[in-house]
Amino acid sequence: MILKSITVNLADVLLADDKHLTLTDRDNARLLAHIPEGDSTYLTIQDNLYSEWVLATNQCGTIVLERAVGGSEARKFPKGSCVFFEASIPVIAWLICNHDCCEGDCKVTPVGFTKATLPTAIVGQPWEGRLQFSGSLPINFDVTGMPAWMGAEYEGALVRLSGTPDAAAVSTISVAAANAQGSANISKQFKVNVVNAPTAQKSAKATK
Questions:
Q1: 180 contacts 106 by C-beta, under 8 angstroms
Q2: For position 200, what pLDDT does the model report?
Q3: What is the DSSP string of the chain?
Q4: Are 167 and 148 spatial neighbours (Cβ–Cβ below 8 Å)?
Q5: Per-residue confidence band for 105, with pLDDT thresholds at 50, 70 and 90
Q6: For the chain, is the Cβ count within 10 Å smaller at the N or the C terminus?
Q7: Minimal CA–CA distance to 132: which of 177, 95, 181?
Q8: pLDDT tens-digit profile of 136-185?
């Protein structure tokens, strides 16, 4: 299994039942050079709306696709859609199985949510929040809805959010988490409250 970065683009429409990528001669040669004869790699096909995971295998100098792997859905993709390697659920499943030297079904603990530590943020002051998950590693996270001042870092089953807010606001952040147990993905929403410094001070006095 080849688990290395590569990116190409569709040179024509790819129909939902197509088994071969529509690539330029140059990109097809690149992909063939990337995947040795008889070997495979997982790729993501993505346009502006949808994505699909496929298994691409070099069979006698021709790239043959297994469509809709890892629970994704076979779709029609327009010319120009991106085809690339990423740490997708099929890749995670493969890594777990080969790390554990397992045969047949992998014994994977589904992703679960443990706790959130999201204190009130104060304008102009550094802030950090933590979201703790559980389940077999590696876990793939997708965080959306973060304001411009916030960034996310991932460490095992932990999502660390941090930054310095520049205005009072309430943000709703969505976190999707998945491991090799793809059918057991979870998605959670969290609110981060940012207040101005005087408001924070008054609130602190009121609670004493």
A1: yes
A2: 44
A3: ------EEE-SS-B-TT--S----HHHHHHHHHHS-TT-EEEEEEE-SS-EEEEEEEEETTEEEEE-S-TT-----B-TT-EEE----HHHHHHHHHHHHT--SS---PPPEEEEEE-PPEETTS-EEEEEEEESSSP-EEEEE---TTEEEEEETTEEEEEE---S-EEEEEEEEEE-S-GGG-EEEEEEEEEE-HHHHHHHHHHT-
A4: no
A5: low
A6: C
A7: 177
A8: 888 888 899 999 999 999 888 999 999 999 999 999 999 988 887 665 57
Copy the structure tokens of residue 80: 């120009």
| 170-173-177 Cα angle (round to 5) | 165
Residue 106: is its pLDDT beyond 80? Answer: no
